[in-house]
Specification:
- The protein folds into three domains: 440 residues, Di-copper center containing domain from catechol oxidase (di-copper center containing domain from catechol oxidase, Orthogonal Bundle), CATH 1.10.1280; 29 residues; 45 residues, no CATH class.
- It contains eleven helices and 18 strands.
- The strands form eight sheets. Strands 1-12-13 form a three-stranded antiparallel sheet, with no helix packed on it.
- β14 and β15 form a beta hairpin.
- The N and C termini lie far apart (61 Å).
- The N terminus and C terminus are likely disordered.
- Bound molecules: copper (II) ion.
- The site of copper (II) ion has 4 residues, from loops.
- It is found in: Melanosome membrane.
Length: 551
């Protein structure tokens, strides 16, 4: 039921109501009928019918999200409006055909373009912001700033969590406008927030975006969403987010400069420099405790400036240094995507290690915060508060790099299938085919467990495994290794010479006889996508070239 009454709200919510949905569906009729199937109007003003039906784009159909068994950490049923997302709100939505997509089938699926969405889209290129020109950085900063100021044309948020989504008289949906960037922040808060069992009775053991297998897929979708919204805002399909390689900064936030994410304020160590537009940004969705106390939701109002004090946490020296390249390399070596019990205590889990609850080599340690978690905590401010972290625009760059590590892992571990991604038993919302809260139209975790280039973007470079570096060794060890290597080489040459003489008719091959070069996955699949670790990707106008380096 989308319409709650006081009688219904007793000890347990039967129908808490909130979410981010198309403006077109948040009418009294839409909310009561639980149907969200808006008409599609073409750019030249033609009415293409409900879900673009007249143009064979889609049709209005039942959407029943299955109740996939999740782990018992969340013990309730029908208490939280995010369960079986988005069925508590809508159970009839547009089902789009082929590669059409969107709440009214007005867009293409990620990775596709063209009038009939039949052409593979050339991946947009996400670059290391340190390698961007001054002009590229300016464009990126301006785009974020514009998104912070532009009201979202199509989506609105509900500003009440329960009783009275339709207002006191049942005739006035309690919804409000939100800017594009603030909706990005709100979605993160909404996925993270507690279940509200009653005034000041939050159930905290729930998080649809963290501490489970969906960590990577959820944040990937979150960034994809923002990237596309900015593309639409700018009218530029080639716009790409960038990333911050946080594995090289050591004790410095090297993107905290006024031409990137904002320098430190000269007089206030926890504020942003007035030379950055981000110093004028206001945070939203900060007051989680108040929302819990009042049983309400973040309504998108301003709650003070962003604060940040990179490396400045004097109480926690272990949070004063960023993760290292070696840490990234070690986590890329973990072959399993995730491991039971698929939470923040999972051991030898690539996901849990990248998320930062394990040591970089995969060993679980409740006291450790590494990789992604450490990068957040290093920033020591708004970006370190889970439910509010997306307010600091550095979140975009930080997660974009986490996503690059995920992509590198997919390539390196030859993860062409969903190996070790649980189909059930993960925390609520984290199973493979669970719909991700609060994306609408619905997207499952499986939908984005793919190579980035299959869903429309690529990175200028992927993080790599790091061999044990000579910097870790003493000079005596280096000398010893050098001498050993020399002797080893001499022995090898002699042995090889002997074998070559014996087998002079045979070509040098790998154990399977096919040669030593083995692509991890197919090199190209007809869409111009490049998969192997030894591949460099060149972007030329609308063309992608794969150059395979056969070392
Ligand atoms: Cu997050």
């Amino acid at each position: 039921m989308a319409v709650c009454t006081l009688a219904v709200f007793t000890a347990v919510f039967v129908c808490s109501v909130s979410g981010q949905f198309p403006r077109a569906c948040m009418t009294v009729d839409g909310i009561v009928s639980k149907e969200c199937c808006p008409e599609l109007i073409s750019p030249d003003g033609q009415n293409l019918g409900v879900c673009g039906e007249n143009a064979s784009r889609g049709s209005c159909q039942d959407l029943t999200v299955p109740d996939i068994p999740h782990n018992p950490e969340y013990p309730f049923t029908n208490v939280d409006d995010r369960e079986r997302w988005p069925n508590k709100f809508f159970n009839r939505t547009c089902a789009c055909q082929g590669n059409f997509w969107g709440y009214n089938c007005g867009e293409c699926r990620y990775g596709w373009t063209g009038e009939s969405c039949a052409q593979p889209a050339p991946p947009v290129l996400r670059k290391n912001i340190q390698n961007c020109t001054a002009e590229e950085r300016r464009r990126f900063v301006d785009a974020l700033d514009q998104a912070k100021r532009s009201v979202h044309p199509d989506y609105i948020i509900c500003k009440e969590h329960w009783l009275g989504l339709l207002g006191p008289n049942g005739t006035e949906p309690q919804v409000t406008n939100v800017t594009i960037y603030d909706l990005f922040v709100w979605m993160h808060y909404y996925a993270v927030r507690d279940t509200l069992l009653g005034p000041n009775q939050p159930w905290r053991e729930i998080d649809f975006a963290h501490e489970g297998p969906a960590y990577n897929t959820w944040h990937r979708m979150h960034l994809l969403w923002l990237e596309r919204e900015i593309q639409k805002m700018l009218g530029d399909e080639s716009f790409a987010l960038h990333y911050w390689d946080w594995s090289v900064g050591g004790t410095e936030c090297d993107v905290c400069t006024d031409d990137m994410m904002g320098a430190r304020h000269p007089l206030n160590p926890t504020a942003l420099s007035p030379g950055s537009p981000f110093s004028r940004w206001q945070s939203v969705c900060m007051s989680l405790d108040d929302y819990n106390r009042l049983v309400t939701l973040c309504n998108g109002t301003d709650e003070g400036p962003i604060f940040r004090n990179p490396g400045g946490n004097v109480d926690r020296p272990d949070f004063r240094t960023l993760p290292s390249r070696r840490d990234v390399g070690r986590c890329l070596d973990l072959p399993l995507y995730d491991n039971p019990n698929w939470t923040e205590t999972a051991e030898r889990s690539f996901r849990n290690t990248l998320e930062g609850f394990d040591h970089p080599d995969g060993e679980y340690d409740p006291s450790i915060r590494s990789l992604h978690n450490l990068a957040h905590l290093f920033l020591n401010g708004t970006a370190s508060i889970t439910h509010a972290s997306a307010n600091d625009p550095i979140f975009v760059l930080l997660h974009s790099y986490s996503d690059a590590i995920f992509d590198a892992w997919l390539v390196l571990q030859n993860a062409s299938s969903l190996v070790s991604y649980p189909e059930e038993g993960a925390p609520i919302g984290h199973n493979l085919n669970s719909t991700m809260v609060p994306f609408f139209p619905v997207v499952t975790n499986a939908d984005v467990f793919q190579f980035s280039q299959d869903i429309g973007y690529a990175f200028d470079a992927l993080p790599e495994r790091v061999p044990e570096g000579p910097s870790q060794l003493t000079s005596l060890e280096i000398f010893g290794m050098g001498a050993g290597a020399f002797i080893g080489c001499v022995v090898c040459v002699l042995v090889a010479f002997g074998i070559a003489r014996k087998l002079s008719a045979k070509r040098w091959g790998g154990p399977d006889g096919k040669g030593v070069y083995q692509p991890l996955l197919k090199e190209e699949d007809g869409r111009g996508r490049c998969y192997t670790a030894d591949t460099t990707v060149t972007f030329m106008d609308n063309d992608v070239r794969c150059n395979v380096d056969r070392r």
